[in-house]
Amino acid sequence: MNFSQSFRLAIKSLLTSKMRAILTMLGIIIGVAAVIIITSLGNGMQNYMNDQFEQMGSNLIQVNVIDDGSSRTVDTDDFYALVDKYPKYLSGVTPYLSPRVVVRHGSEEDSFERTSVYGVSETFYNGEKGTTMQGEKLQNGRFLSYIDVDREQGVCVIGSYIADTAFNGNAMGKVITLSGDPYTVIGVFEEKAESAKGGGDDVIYIPYTRAQRLGAGGGYSMYLLTATSRDTASAAKGLVERRLQKTFPDAGNYFVMTSAEMMDAMDSMVDLLMTILTLIAALSLLVGGIGIMNIMLVSVTERTREIGIRKSLGAKQRNIRWQFIIEAGTTSAIGGVIGIGLGILCANILTFVLGAIVGTGSADFHAIPTASGIAVAFGVSVAIGVLFGYLPANKAAKLNPIDALRYE
Amino acid sequence: MEHLIEFKDVYKIYQMGDTAVHALDGVDLTIDPGEFVAIVGQSGSGKSTAMNIIGCLDVPTSGQYLLGGVDVSTMDDDQQAEIRNKMLGFIFQQYNLIPKLNVQENVELPLLYAGLSAEERRAKAVHALERVGLADKRKNLPSQLSGGQQQRVSIARALAGDPSVILADEPTGALDSRTGREVLSFLQQLNREGNTVVLITHDNAIAVKAQRIVRLQDGRVIYDGDAHDPAAVVQPHAEDDGEVAGQ
Description:
The structure holds two protein chains of two kinds. By secondary structure, chain A is an alpha+beta fold. Chain A has twelve helices and 13 strands. In chain A, strands 3, 4, 7, 8, 9, 10 and 11 form a seven-stranded mixed beta sheet that branches. Chain A has a four-stranded antiparallel beta sheet with strand order 2-12-1-13. In chain A, helix 1 crosses helix 10. By secondary structure, chain B is an alpha/beta fold. In chain B, the strands form two sheets. Chain B has a six-stranded mixed beta sheet, with helices on both faces. A four-stranded antiparallel beta sheet of chain B has the order 2-1-4-5, with helices on one face.
């Protein structure tokens, strides 16, 4: 009935003791801000990873074969045979080795400390589509050929970061040194990710036969296969697994995953992580609620006389109860709004900071607060105020008017 | 004529440890509409208990209290609150204004609990403040007013809801004598205008401003009659035995 007056009274009493009001709200502010920050980060992380997977292509199948030292093994030719046998499902395969190499151009080394070097076969590049399996397009020259791979030629195809940094954009025919061996640049990719250091343009492809000599491996070999489309990817994965089962009785010796599956697995992992973190953050909301209850109990005691006056003038129990519940709800709602503001601010700062750190250029990181997250945070903070305000409000409502009027 | 206030053999007994203290010990009392009655007594005489019962802040241990012909002795908390709101206007010694509310909001309080609309509340509050001559101060906070002005605001608050009874508990107790006289003459004026006024005091000099005096001692009525009768201000063995903290 007297909602607006109770609301105005609540605001007034918050304004008359600002320090106390802020301290009371602090728990709610921190709790709400934490929930907003965490949900924003989770949201941003998912978007970031999805972007990266999208760039890699959604019909990729990645195969890791662990080298257990036994004679049982599959090699590149086995995969070629598999692709030839099932053209409806599989469209290509390449070894995908990551040798540990030191990249140098002249005396320059520091600029290339984060360069990725991969050993692949000529099938990594699809001439018909004009892109590699991971979506890179040639700007100049050509990709590796069968001859290059077969004869272990010292040639390479480079990303735009290398072309710009090492050769000022004029890279064709120039030489770059990988672990002491010279490699001639035969092709340059188009820029795909702002030519950032350590990003998708900071990359060198060499024949996998050379990469093997550079000491690739680490006990396993990796292959990339392409399914004919995203829809055939899981059937294609089944075919690859069947082939591997024939060679390896132990399923622990190999690992096959499609990029779509990886995306889903990562998403659900992030979801789980975010749920746990949000629950932990929600605990501080609980603590905030207890803080509000505490201060409301103090407030009821301090205002015993006021309660007595109101009752003598005809306030019923529910009038008094509502007055204090509205006051508690208003306190926590204002705390909630401040917390939302703080959370959004922090999310933006984190976008800026983390974006600079993890932003490989190939995908931007944005911690985006979700509308539903904000709505839930606000709703929960009001609910906590009302819930934890109820006990003190009820105490106030039940006060005996005579005792309350005499209270000094 | 129907009595406005009627006590029928009212007892109020407090249990203090092992002893039962009879704050009211079989009181019979009637007050009619339009009267100006002072209930007088020393500390511990039971006058505060009587005021609490008249004001529907408390209920008798036994006996009946009829207000406007309705038995309020058996009502619950919220029903009593409604009776207080509709029939009673309180004036307290300490004014009991709410410091955070301005003068008009204070006067509007009983009207708010009566469920009146904002416009009705405003109109009635302004009218009541005009009657006590403080309409121009209605946006001030109580702390910005003198003691006498604050007491007039509390009178306006008591008047705002057109109550059947104005119940004044030591209304001059916190005021200097000149301001106290003003407040008393205002109560007399209200009575002349037809309001029923019940004044609770320990001070004979104040009690004689009423038409009728009811003197309590040890929970019993020892005098009930004309305020101008010399017997009204006689104080038989006036010692305060301190049995009940009656104030």
